[in-house]
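Aim 2 progress update. The chain analyzed this quarter is reproduced below.
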Amino acid sequence: MRFSSFTYLVGQGLHNLKANKMMTFASMGVLIVCMILVGAAFLFGANIDSMVAYIGEQNETVAFINDDADTAAVEDPAERNKMLYSLGFLLGDNLKRQLILDNEDDYKALSQGMRDSLLNKKAQTDLEKYKPQIIQKYQDDAKAISAKRQAAQQEYMENFQKEKGVKTLDNGTMIKLTRAGKGKMPKADSTVKVHYTGTLIDGTKFDSSRDRGEAFKTRLTDVIPCWTKAVQQMKPGARAKVVCPADTAYGNCPVGQIPANSALVFDIELLDME
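Predicted structure tokens:
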């Protein structure tokens, strides 16, 4: 059974908020982003100015240059610079997921505009004049990035499916046991304790219970569909690589570092079950 609808995502979000603390932030992200996307679709149909406002809201970064700041209260300048550099890097990483910049001049123009805005300088262009072009670029780039991602995901899944030992389940989830377990397999409503690491197909890690040093305990009814299906194929002690098509994961809603319509890869180790 496939669950990629807005209703399912909202239901999963509410379930996870009650069921376990480790998925709380992801669940909240699903709920909030889905509602934002629905509202954005309405705004775009209404008028172009509303769409521009929506774009601004989606990428809103509030920054204040405080000339009156108490320098004595500021942490070590070198560490502060590293922190702000890290913030800038993350903002850039977010932007590159949404925009296609072709050359060095593109990067310079974009960074200059951001710098002027942050320093409260007067814009060097007529912002109203370029709003339609900005919207068009967002739309065109989003389509191109999505198409490229979908093609890469399809190739990845097709190649993985050909590997020895891979089993494709009825909802499209693929699982390959890398270590056998012993005992009975869990049922769809079982409570399990696992360690896991989740990545995008390019290896970008978005979550890991191992990094937190704390195993994840959950009912299989409270997780994304690919998990519900895949973990039922494992016995306690087993470890597996699980590839989840987008419609068995978070569908068309972005969650944290996970872009919309992303296939996900999990390294799951079943520790125990109830």
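The beta strands are 166-168, 174-179, 191-200, 205-208, 216-219, 239-244, 264-273. The first helix runs from residue 6 to 19. These observations will guide the mutagenesis experiments scheduled for the next reporting period.
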